[in-house]
Amino acid sequence: MRTSLMALAAILALSAPANAAAPKGSASTSAEPSIDTMKRLVKELSSDAYEGRAPGTAGEEKTLALLATEFGKLGLKPGNNGSWFQDVPLVEITAKNVSALNFTGGKSAVSAAYGPEMVIGTYRTSQPEIAVKDSPVVFVGYGINAPEKSWNDYAGVDVKGKTVLILVNDPDYETQGLTGPFNGRAMTYYGRWTYKYEEAARQGAAAAIIVHDTVPAAYGWNVVQSSWTGAQHVADSANGNAGQSAAIGWIQKDKAAALMASAGQDLTALMAAAKMPGFKAVPLNGVKASVSFDNDLRKHSSKNVVALLPGKTRPNEYVLYTGHWDHLGHCQAAPDGDDICNGAVDNATGTAALVALAQANVKAGPTDRSQLFIAVTGEESGLLGSAYYGDHPIVPAGQTVGGVNMDALSMAGPAKNVVVIGRGKSGLDAYLDRALAAQGRVASDEPTPEKGFYYRSDHFSFAKHGVPMLYFEGGDDLVNGGTVAGAAAAKDYEEHRYHGPKDEYDPNWDWNGVLGDLKLYYTVGRELATTTDWPNWVDGDEFRAIRDKSRAGK
Prior knowledge:
Helix content: 25-40%
CATH architecture of the largest domain: 3-Layer(aba) Sandwich
């Protein structure tokens, strides 16, 4: 059903609270995103011909050509000074001749095999050979150094040249509520694996190894193994990332437990101690780690795709639509030999949505503000494309109103709700609430905030620069089957398709839920592009000061 924002505003005037009134200047023509466009593009992008859309491959070339053609046919303009593309300098690193991760000096030697028991890699982009030999081992708990929280797992210990073992997530992740030194159950950035490696490097560690545990990691070992084996992509730098630890990786929990037992320690007891304030790092006296591997290094520029729909009256104010086009390429093979991680849901759906939303906006006509549709690269390697855009923006943050990010649209069917990642952080919540009310749906908080989804998709790269970005996932309260069916669908996808070769296009998918969610993205984006308001982060939010500074032009 088509509905204009004028009609939407009239409806909501009867039901919305006073503090949720529609922003000024929000009337606009409306159109409906095309599911036929979605089906066509998701099927194409996730076909074997694209080989899993890994950056720096023929799959990237095909993806870029397809998107530029699609945006061009719609009449959009190249969004980067006359080009459809923004170069993102990367280095492809493929580990070869990987040794086992060997620990000696304990009661007995412990060895973890590459793949089934540990994965290893490096951020260093100028070293064809990595060798960590007889490096003393230190257990550093959660590996957090947070002065503002009076928490430092590295206090009193020198780990320069040593191997650190680190727990994933935050110390209070098992808390039921959202209060605690690290926001209780809700993961903070200190809990993300990316932070663990960053801090270990700042501390001078030669190697940083995270102990995998399915619940706090939020995914099983299969995801770690498929994501960390094969070619990896790393952001390049002038010094080849020489300040990073030589080796970074993960180890299976049971193998870590065997290591601790060999060192006369108990992993369960250490994990409990690490949750407590005042925890002190524990050197595994006499235990040393060794690992080596060769690197095939290839420097290349991947690309973000940027398309512009110019605004009518305020073209220097911009609304963003983002989604990552990349996936894992060739990965750990399934039992049937299939080794292409096609990434149909993750994230051919979000990429196709960029085109479908651009198509709908062209059909409805330009808005007052300009709209940028950005398909970013390198999300699967650590948000590399969006991070590069954030550091090298085509449009200054002070001229960017805000936007929406789309990552892995739900194929579970229509839902009564959507799950908002980071709900309560910015004024964009009110825009989404209005759009939901028109559909008779509601916004829900994350049921699993301990999984840290806020730090796992591209909206985070923009938020770090102060730009409010809305990111929600398909609802978990399905029209058919409720929350039980929603949980079952999510579990089935995570265990059988997520980051694996079976995330493939299915002609039997129910697209009705996707259509409802696309309408939300369209309505929110359209309203942002017509209003004269500038949404901000709520008072006290970590990104509020950055936003205020950029808007002040400082």
